[in-house]
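Cross-posting from the modeling subforum.

Setting up a comparison between two proteins and wanted a second pair of eyes on the formatting. Protein 1 (sequence, then structure tokens):
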Amino acid sequence: MTILATRQELSDFLAEIERRAYKQALFAVQDTHAALDIVQDSMMKLTAKYATKPIEELPLLFQRILQNTIRDYYRRQKIRSLWTSLFSSFTPDDRDKNHEDFDILETLPIKQESNDPGTQLEKAQLIQLIEEAIKTLPLRQREAFILRYWEEMSLAETAIIMNCSEGSVKTHCSRATHTLATILKAKGVEL
């Protein structure tokens, strides 16, 4: 007999994963508003379709929904890009294309373990370097790396979420870690 998640357990689960899911989506799409929408859509899909599932099944289900929602975002962007390029010949090129340089990652609090300002600064700088390095990874490598090492998913769970073989997950993770190590070493971070 399986025990289904209560409303409170579902609410607690969503509160617990919200920030990590947001960062994961932000790494994937690199747009703050789109990342927020993706996380919100993923949470809504989970509650609408899987609220009656056992609590232990929710992390894997949510990660699968989140990754599919990210893929849907890229599909929509591809279609929009196609239509935009088709109609761009009808619009003048002197449009203003400025974007704000606001980075939501700078506003998120970082959990501090030490009150020493030097240690806190060093940790914050290291986190920033790692986040910037992760953003440079190709999409599938970034997805595999975040699921395996940040979300601590098993190899099998990651393969299910990414809809690929376990061997592919290993390859993506290996390439990601080598790339990240090279980038961080070039910035003076010894691993």
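Protein 2 (same layout):
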Amino acid sequence: MNIYDIAKEAGVSISTVSRVLNKKENVNEETRCKVEEILKKYDYVPSGIARGMVSKSMKTVAILTVDVRVPQYSRIAYTIEREFSKRGYNVQLCNTGGDLEEAVQYLDVVTSKQVDGVVLVGSIFNRIELDERVASLLKHTPVVVANGQLNLPGCYSVLVDDRLGISLAVDHLYQKGHREIFYLKDMDTDSAQRKQAGFLETMKRLGLDGASHIRETEFGLQGGMQAVQRLLDSKVEVSAIVCGEDLTAVGVLKGLKCAGIKVPEEIAVTGFNHSDYAKVCEPELTTVDNKAELVGGLSVQLLETLIRKGEHYASMVVQPQLVLGKSS
């Protein structure tokens, strides 16, 4: 028994059966009862594919992220998955591992399955637009980038003002009397570039030397610890360290503790993301809240508007906020 058989026995169109199945209000009550009786009679369970053919929607969205184990990505992806599930969508979650070729392959797979929309989580996806295949793959699929941008038709963004976030941290440290402020760049993404630009702009505005106060390191605990060791070995004067990620900042705290340096009395430290890492370390980190859950929620609202072809939609910018801990 399929939807066509149900419609034939009820003497109605398949679109009417679809409206009954989807509990739409624009169905005559007598007709609704008649269709429901037949559905109950045959214990009919609608096929997702058949429903999609009728409604022109598979009620499925795909989330592409780099690595769901990274707290920043997981918080955004989790929020998106939960919110779309509440709205009756099936959600496919794909981890690309940061490999752009794998990202393109995933896009090929999910668009071939006619998903209703795609969310790309992370600014690393900004670079996939350089692949000529991407524009073709996404030509008919609504796309939202969470904290990133794609300069392609039909692609919109919920972007965090990362420049402002780092600027808030540097201004805070300056107000606390710090002048030898260093920035650790620990990732190679567009978001990391914006953070570095925010550091340079703010240091220049404050009349401080920013260019010579940037150090590159690996992301994470080891990256933070190694950066501290290199700074101490270089014998430069350091009064504060600004990090682009909380986990790297925790590594900095650990490195300073191993070196016998007190935080914040001798060197202050700030992080970025307002993750659990910032809350469980000692001392608790001063960090920038880039509002991951808000980014995820807004991404859902924006993509659903695009899917439904709503009249009003536009890219959005989220303003971060400095959260004071005890490390500064």
